[in-house]
Amino acid sequence: MRGVAQGVFCRAAGVSSVVSDATKILSKRDAAKAWFTRSRAALLFISVATAAPSSEAAQQLVLTANVGKTTFFEGEPIYFLVQLKNIGTDTAWVYFFNLFSPAVTLSASRGLQNPTAVAKPISDYLLSPSWRGEPIAPGAAVLNTIVLQNIFGDQTNSRRHLFNHHLPPDEYEIRLEFDAHLGIPGATPLSVKAAPISFHVRVPTALEEKEVRDLEAIREMGWDTMRVAGLPRAARYKTTLINWVNRRFMDEPDDPFLPFLLYEGIYGVGQILWKSIQAGEVQRFDADTSEVVSRLRLAVIDRHRASIGGAHLVQALTARHHDQIASLASRLSHTPAGDMARYQVEREQHEQHAKQQPPR
Question: Which CATH superfamily is domain 36-203 in?
Fold first, then answer.
Protein backbone atom coordinates (compact mmCIF):
# COMPACT_ATOMS: atom_id res chain seq x y z
CA MET A 1 0.00 0.00 0.00
CA ARG A 2 1.13 3.54 -0.67
CA GLY A 3 3.60 4.60 2.00
CA VAL A 4 1.99 2.18 4.37
CA ALA A 5 2.48 -1.29 5.69
CA GLN A 6 5.56 -3.20 4.72
CA GLY A 7 4.12 -6.40 6.18
CA VAL A 8 1.65 -7.87 8.62
CA PHE A 9 2.11 -10.65 11.09
CA CYS A 10 -0.27 -12.44 13.44
CA ARG A 11 0.84 -13.16 16.97
CA ALA A 12 -1.94 -15.53 17.96
CA ALA A 13 -1.00 -18.60 19.93
CA GLY A 14 -2.84 -21.86 19.67
CA VAL A 15 -5.12 -20.89 16.79
CA SER A 16 -5.70 -24.00 14.74
CA SER A 17 -6.88 -24.74 11.28
CA VAL A 18 -8.92 -27.57 10.10
CA VAL A 19 -10.14 -31.71 5.04
CA SER A 20 -10.01 -34.20 -0.43
CA ASP A 21 -10.21 -35.68 -3.25
CA ALA A 22 -7.86 -38.65 -2.83
CA THR A 23 -6.11 -37.84 -6.08
CA LYS A 24 -5.51 -34.22 -5.12
CA ILE A 25 -3.15 -32.87 -2.46
CA LEU A 26 -2.41 -30.89 0.64
CA SER A 27 -0.34 -27.73 0.75
CA LYS A 28 1.85 -26.29 3.43
CA ARG A 29 0.07 -23.02 2.89
CA ASP A 30 -3.15 -24.70 4.00
CA ALA A 31 -1.87 -25.42 7.48
CA ALA A 32 -0.69 -21.85 7.82
CA LYS A 33 -4.23 -20.54 7.30
CA ALA A 34 -5.61 -20.00 10.78
CA TRP A 35 -9.21 -20.43 11.85
CA PHE A 36 -9.06 -16.68 12.07
CA THR A 37 -10.68 -16.40 10.18
CA ARG A 38 -25.16 -10.77 21.03
CA SER A 39 -31.44 -6.81 21.80
CA ARG A 40 -32.96 -9.45 19.74
CA ALA A 41 -35.08 -6.67 18.40
CA ALA A 42 -32.64 -5.95 15.59
CA LEU A 43 -30.00 -7.71 13.59
CA LEU A 44 -28.01 -4.77 12.27
CA PHE A 45 -26.91 -1.89 14.47
CA ILE A 46 -25.61 1.56 13.68
CA SER A 47 -22.62 2.94 15.54
CA VAL A 48 -21.98 5.87 17.82
CA ALA A 49 -18.80 7.81 17.09
CA THR A 50 -17.11 9.84 19.82
CA ALA A 51 -14.39 12.42 19.39
CA ALA A 52 -13.68 16.10 19.92
CA PRO A 53 -16.66 18.22 18.79
CA SER A 54 -14.53 19.85 16.11
CA SER A 55 -13.66 16.52 14.48
CA GLU A 56 -15.54 16.11 11.19
CA ALA A 57 -14.35 12.51 10.99
CA ALA A 58 -16.60 11.63 13.91
CA GLN A 59 -19.61 12.45 11.75
CA GLN A 60 -18.64 10.36 8.74
CA LEU A 61 -17.68 6.91 10.05
CA VAL A 62 -20.40 4.35 10.75
CA LEU A 63 -19.60 1.03 12.40
CA THR A 64 -22.05 -1.88 12.17
CA ALA A 65 -22.01 -5.42 13.53
CA ASN A 66 -24.28 -8.29 12.59
CA VAL A 67 -24.76 -11.99 13.36
CA GLY A 68 -27.69 -12.46 11.01
CA LYS A 69 -30.28 -13.76 13.47
CA THR A 70 -31.08 -13.88 17.17
CA THR A 71 -31.14 -17.61 17.98
CA PHE A 72 -28.62 -20.36 17.26
CA PHE A 73 -28.45 -23.97 18.36
CA GLU A 74 -25.50 -25.13 20.43
CA GLY A 75 -22.65 -26.05 18.08
CA GLU A 76 -23.96 -24.02 15.12
CA PRO A 77 -21.39 -21.63 13.59
CA ILE A 78 -22.18 -17.99 14.38
CA TYR A 79 -20.95 -15.85 11.50
CA PHE A 80 -19.97 -12.38 12.71
CA LEU A 81 -19.84 -9.54 10.16
CA VAL A 82 -18.42 -6.08 10.88
CA GLN A 83 -18.43 -3.08 8.57
CA LEU A 84 -16.83 0.35 8.77
CA LYS A 85 -18.41 2.77 6.28
CA ASN A 86 -17.59 6.33 5.31
CA ILE A 87 -20.87 8.18 4.88
CA GLY A 88 -19.19 11.56 4.56
CA THR A 89 -18.09 13.53 1.51
CA ASP A 90 -14.35 13.44 2.24
CA THR A 91 -11.88 10.57 2.38
CA ALA A 92 -11.47 9.21 5.91
CA TRP A 93 -7.99 8.18 7.05
CA VAL A 94 -8.02 5.44 9.66
CA TYR A 95 -5.94 2.67 11.19
CA PHE A 96 -6.24 -0.82 9.69
CA PHE A 97 -9.78 -2.11 10.27
CA ASN A 98 -10.40 -5.82 10.72
CA LEU A 99 -11.30 -8.08 13.61
CA PHE A 100 -7.64 -8.81 14.40
CA SER A 101 -6.50 -5.19 14.29
CA PRO A 102 -5.03 -3.84 17.55
CA ALA A 103 -7.37 -0.89 17.06
CA VAL A 104 -10.46 -3.12 17.31
CA THR A 105 -11.72 -4.10 20.76
CA LEU A 106 -14.26 -6.87 21.28
CA SER A 107 -15.97 -7.42 24.61
CA ALA A 108 -18.61 -9.99 25.42
CA SER A 109 -20.89 -11.09 28.22
CA ARG A 110 -22.80 -14.28 28.99
CA GLY A 111 -26.04 -14.33 30.96
CA LEU A 112 -25.93 -11.69 33.73
CA GLN A 113 -22.13 -11.41 33.73
CA ASN A 114 -20.35 -8.12 33.11
CA PRO A 115 -18.71 -7.67 29.69
CA THR A 116 -15.08 -8.76 29.48
CA ALA A 117 -12.53 -8.28 26.73
CA VAL A 118 -12.26 -11.07 24.17
CA ALA A 119 -8.68 -12.36 23.98
CA LYS A 120 -8.63 -12.38 20.19
CA PRO A 121 -5.56 -12.78 17.97
CA ILE A 122 -3.81 -9.49 17.17
CA SER A 123 -2.09 -8.55 13.93
CA ASP A 124 1.16 -6.57 13.94
CA TYR A 125 1.79 -4.00 11.19
CA LEU A 126 5.13 -2.59 10.06
CA LEU A 127 4.55 1.01 9.00
CA SER A 128 6.68 3.37 6.96
CA PRO A 129 7.50 6.79 8.50
CA SER A 130 5.31 8.55 5.91
CA TRP A 131 2.19 6.49 6.71
CA ARG A 132 -0.85 8.69 7.43
CA GLY A 133 -3.56 6.06 7.69
CA GLU A 134 -5.64 3.88 5.40
CA PRO A 135 -8.02 5.79 3.12
CA ILE A 136 -11.74 5.04 2.99
CA ALA A 137 -13.32 6.93 0.11
CA PRO A 138 -16.74 8.58 0.45
CA GLY A 139 -19.42 5.90 0.29
CA ALA A 140 -16.88 3.08 0.60
CA ALA A 141 -16.80 0.46 3.36
CA VAL A 142 -14.42 -2.09 4.86
CA LEU A 143 -15.92 -5.50 5.69
CA ASN A 144 -14.63 -8.48 7.65
CA THR A 145 -16.19 -11.73 8.90
CA ILE A 146 -15.26 -14.50 11.29
CA VAL A 147 -16.88 -17.49 12.95
CA LEU A 148 -17.41 -16.15 16.46
CA GLN A 149 -16.60 -19.43 18.23
CA ASN A 150 -13.07 -19.29 16.87
CA ILE A 151 -12.27 -16.37 19.19
CA PHE A 152 -14.96 -16.35 21.91
CA GLY A 153 -16.35 -18.86 24.40
CA ASP A 154 -15.07 -21.68 26.57
CA GLN A 155 -11.74 -23.03 25.34
CA THR A 156 -11.96 -26.44 23.63
CA ASN A 157 -9.65 -29.01 22.11
CA SER A 158 -9.63 -28.03 18.44
CA ARG A 159 -8.51 -31.51 17.44
CA ARG A 160 -11.79 -32.93 18.69
CA HIS A 161 -14.19 -30.04 18.13
CA LEU A 162 -15.08 -27.85 15.16
CA PHE A 163 -14.19 -24.55 16.80
CA ASN A 164 -11.53 -23.24 19.16
CA HIS A 165 -14.24 -22.22 21.63
CA HIS A 166 -17.67 -23.44 22.73
CA LEU A 167 -20.78 -21.39 23.52
CA PRO A 168 -23.17 -23.33 25.78
CA PRO A 169 -26.90 -22.49 25.84
CA ASP A 170 -27.38 -18.98 27.29
CA GLU A 171 -27.87 -15.30 26.41
CA TYR A 172 -24.89 -13.45 24.94
CA GLU A 173 -23.99 -9.86 24.15
CA ILE A 174 -21.13 -8.58 21.96
CA ARG A 175 -19.71 -5.04 21.92
CA LEU A 176 -17.36 -3.66 19.27
CA GLU A 177 -15.19 -0.54 19.33
CA PHE A 178 -12.67 0.86 16.85
CA ASP A 179 -9.86 3.29 17.74
CA ALA A 180 -9.91 4.84 14.28
CA HIS A 181 -6.91 7.14 14.64
CA LEU A 182 -4.60 4.81 16.53
CA GLY A 183 -1.00 5.57 15.59
CA ILE A 184 -1.87 8.23 13.00
CA PRO A 185 0.49 11.19 13.52
CA GLY A 186 -1.27 14.39 14.55
CA ALA A 187 -4.77 12.90 14.35
CA THR A 188 -7.42 13.71 16.95
CA PRO A 189 -8.33 10.57 18.94
CA LEU A 190 -11.50 9.03 17.55
CA SER A 191 -13.44 6.08 18.98
CA VAL A 192 -16.22 4.53 16.91
CA LYS A 193 -18.60 2.15 18.68
CA ALA A 194 -21.19 -0.24 17.31
CA ALA A 195 -24.37 -0.71 19.33
CA PRO A 196 -24.33 -3.96 21.36
CA ILE A 197 -25.77 -7.03 19.66
CA SER A 198 -27.45 -9.85 21.56
CA PHE A 199 -28.29 -13.43 20.67
CA HIS A 200 -29.44 -16.65 22.30
CA VAL A 201 -27.87 -20.12 22.07
CA ARG A 202 -30.43 -22.90 22.63
CA VAL A 203 -30.20 -26.62 23.28
CA PRO A 204 -29.89 -28.48 19.95
CA THR A 205 -32.42 -31.01 18.69
CA ALA A 206 -31.38 -34.65 18.40
CA LEU A 207 -30.75 -34.25 14.65
CA GLU A 208 -28.71 -31.06 15.15
CA GLU A 209 -26.61 -32.69 17.84
CA LYS A 210 -25.99 -35.72 15.60
CA GLU A 211 -24.75 -33.48 12.79
CA VAL A 212 -22.30 -31.76 15.14
CA ARG A 213 -21.00 -35.13 16.38
CA ASP A 214 -20.63 -36.44 12.81
CA LEU A 215 -18.59 -33.39 11.81
CA GLU A 216 -16.44 -33.63 14.91
CA ALA A 217 -15.67 -37.25 14.02
CA ILE A 218 -14.45 -36.07 10.59
CA ARG A 219 -12.41 -33.35 12.28
CA GLU A 220 -10.67 -35.89 14.50
CA MET A 221 -9.71 -37.85 11.40
CA GLY A 222 -7.28 -35.06 10.48
CA TRP A 223 -5.19 -35.97 13.52
CA ASP A 224 -5.60 -39.75 13.42
CA THR A 225 -2.27 -41.61 13.33
CA MET A 226 -3.83 -45.03 12.75
CA ARG A 227 -2.74 -46.47 9.41
CA VAL A 228 -5.24 -47.94 6.98
CA ALA A 229 -3.88 -49.59 3.81
CA GLY A 230 -0.46 -48.20 4.65
CA LEU A 231 -1.55 -44.57 5.10
CA PRO A 232 -2.65 -42.60 8.18
CA ARG A 233 -6.41 -41.99 8.38
CA ALA A 234 -5.58 -38.28 8.28
CA ALA A 235 -4.85 -38.69 4.56
CA ARG A 236 -8.58 -39.30 3.98
CA TYR A 237 -9.67 -36.18 5.85
CA LYS A 238 -10.26 -33.77 2.97
CA THR A 239 -11.76 -36.38 0.71
CA THR A 240 -14.21 -37.31 3.44
CA LEU A 241 -15.08 -33.70 4.20
CA ILE A 242 -15.60 -32.69 0.57
CA ASN A 243 -17.78 -35.72 -0.07
CA TRP A 244 -19.84 -34.91 3.04
CA VAL A 245 -20.30 -31.29 1.90
CA ASN A 246 -21.33 -32.40 -1.58
CA ARG A 247 -23.97 -34.81 -0.24
CA ARG A 248 -25.22 -32.33 2.35
CA PHE A 249 -25.61 -29.55 -0.19
CA MET A 250 -27.75 -31.82 -2.34
CA ASP A 251 -29.97 -32.79 0.61
CA GLU A 252 -29.92 -29.64 2.80
CA PRO A 253 -28.56 -26.70 0.77
CA ASP A 254 -29.30 -24.20 3.55
CA ASP A 255 -27.24 -26.07 6.15
CA PRO A 256 -25.41 -23.38 8.21
CA PHE A 257 -22.22 -25.47 8.42
CA LEU A 258 -21.55 -25.43 4.66
CA PRO A 259 -19.79 -22.02 4.41
CA PHE A 260 -17.64 -22.84 7.45
CA LEU A 261 -16.63 -26.26 6.13
CA LEU A 262 -15.61 -24.84 2.75
CA TYR A 263 -13.55 -22.08 4.39
CA GLU A 264 -11.90 -22.96 7.72
CA GLY A 265 -12.74 -26.63 7.41
CA ILE A 266 -10.90 -27.10 4.13
CA TYR A 267 -7.55 -25.77 5.41
CA GLY A 268 -5.03 -27.43 7.68
CA VAL A 269 -4.22 -30.93 8.88
CA GLY A 270 -2.46 -32.62 11.76
CA GLN A 271 1.32 -32.82 11.73
CA ILE A 272 1.15 -36.57 11.13
CA LEU A 273 -0.01 -35.89 7.56
CA TRP A 274 2.87 -33.53 6.86
CA LYS A 275 5.26 -36.36 7.60
CA SER A 276 3.45 -38.50 5.04
CA ILE A 277 3.63 -35.69 2.46
CA GLN A 278 7.35 -35.24 3.06
CA ALA A 279 7.82 -39.00 2.73
CA GLY A 280 6.02 -38.96 -0.62
CA GLU A 281 3.15 -41.13 0.67
CA VAL A 282 0.49 -38.42 0.21
CA GLN A 283 0.24 -35.78 -2.52
CA ARG A 284 -0.24 -32.11 -1.78
CA PHE A 285 -3.75 -30.69 -2.02
CA ASP A 286 -4.47 -27.02 -2.73
CA ALA A 287 -8.09 -26.14 -2.03
CA ASP A 288 -7.74 -22.81 -3.85
CA THR A 289 -6.96 -24.53 -7.16
CA SER A 290 -9.28 -27.53 -6.77
CA GLU A 291 -12.11 -27.47 -9.32
CA VAL A 292 -14.29 -29.55 -6.98
CA VAL A 293 -13.85 -27.10 -4.10
CA SER A 294 -14.35 -24.09 -6.38
CA ARG A 295 -17.60 -25.52 -7.76
CA LEU A 296 -18.94 -26.23 -4.28
CA ARG A 297 -17.94 -22.81 -2.96
CA LEU A 298 -19.67 -20.95 -5.78
CA ALA A 299 -22.82 -23.07 -5.42
CA VAL A 300 -22.96 -22.50 -1.65
CA ILE A 301 -22.29 -18.76 -2.02
CA ASP A 302 -25.15 -18.47 -4.51
CA ARG A 303 -27.52 -20.35 -2.18
CA HIS A 304 -26.39 -18.44 0.94
CA ARG A 305 -26.08 -15.06 -0.77
CA ALA A 306 -28.49 -13.38 1.68
CA SER A 307 -26.71 -14.68 4.79
CA ILE A 308 -23.54 -13.69 6.60
CA GLY A 309 -22.34 -17.25 6.01
CA GLY A 310 -22.37 -16.50 2.28
CA ALA A 311 -20.34 -13.33 2.84
CA HIS A 312 -17.92 -15.32 4.98
CA LEU A 313 -17.34 -17.81 2.17
CA VAL A 314 -16.78 -15.01 -0.35
CA GLN A 315 -13.98 -13.86 1.93
CA ALA A 316 -12.34 -17.28 1.40
CA LEU A 317 -12.14 -16.70 -2.37
CA THR A 318 -10.08 -13.54 -2.25
CA ALA A 319 -6.62 -15.11 -2.41
CA ARG A 320 -6.61 -16.39 -5.99
CA HIS A 321 -10.03 -15.96 -7.57
CA HIS A 322 -10.23 -12.32 -8.60
CA ASP A 323 -12.32 -13.09 -11.69
CA GLN A 324 -14.91 -14.96 -9.64
CA ILE A 325 -15.06 -12.16 -7.06
CA ALA A 326 -15.82 -9.55 -9.73
CA SER A 327 -18.59 -11.70 -11.17
CA LEU A 328 -20.12 -12.26 -7.73
CA ALA A 329 -20.03 -8.53 -6.97
CA SER A 330 -22.12 -7.85 -10.06
CA ARG A 331 -24.48 -10.83 -9.89
CA LEU A 332 -25.17 -10.79 -6.13
CA SER A 333 -25.49 -7.04 -5.62
CA HIS A 334 -27.49 -5.81 -2.62
CA THR A 335 -26.87 -9.02 -0.64
CA PRO A 336 -24.31 -9.66 2.13
CA ALA A 337 -22.33 -11.95 -0.20
CA GLY A 338 -22.44 -9.36 -2.98
CA ASP A 339 -21.38 -6.56 -0.61
CA MET A 340 -18.37 -8.60 0.49
CA ALA A 341 -17.44 -9.34 -3.11
CA ARG A 342 -17.71 -5.65 -4.04
CA TYR A 343 -15.49 -4.71 -1.11
CA GLN A 344 -12.89 -7.26 -2.16
CA VAL A 345 -12.91 -5.90 -5.72
CA GLU A 346 -12.49 -2.33 -4.48
CA ARG A 347 -9.69 -3.36 -2.14
CA GLU A 348 -7.85 -5.13 -4.95
CA GLN A 349 -8.20 -2.09 -7.19
CA HIS A 350 -6.87 0.18 -4.43
CA GLU A 351 -3.88 -2.08 -3.81
CA GLN A 352 -3.05 -2.30 -7.50
CA HIS A 353 -3.25 1.50 -7.79
CA ALA A 354 -1.04 1.94 -4.73
CA LYS A 355 1.62 -0.37 -6.15
CA GLN A 356 1.86 1.83 -9.23
CA GLN A 357 2.54 4.97 -7.19
CA PRO A 358 6.15 6.06 -6.57
CA PRO A 359 7.41 5.85 -2.95
CA ARG A 360 6.74 8.96 -0.88
Answer: Immunoglobulins (2.60.40.10)
